[in-house]
Amino acid sequence: MPEHEAPQSRNEAILQNILGEHNELLEPQSRNEAILQAILYGDSYTEDAQSRIETLLLCILNGTTTDLQPLSRNEEILIAKINGGTYDKEPQSRIEELLIEWLNAFVEKTVTGAVCSFDDAISGQPLIDLTAQIVPKQSGTGDPSPSNVRPISGWTGVNVTRCGKNLFDKTNTQDGFISGQTGEVMASTTRKCSDFIPVKPSTAYFMNGYGDLNYFSVVLFDENKAVIQNYYSGASKTAPFTFTTTATAKFARLTFIKEQLDTMSLTYGTTAPTTYEPYNGTTYSVSWQTEAGEIVEGTINIVSGLLTVEHMKQVYRGDDLDTLSLNYGQTASGYTHMYFGTNNTPLGKNYGQQLHTKSNIGVIANAQSASIPSSEGFAVLNLTNPDRLIVYWYVNLTWASANDFKTWLNNNPFELYYQLATPQTYQLTPTEVATILGINNIYSNTGNTTVKYKARG
Question: pLDDT tens digits for 266-286?
Answer without folding.
Answer: 999 888 888 899 999 999 999
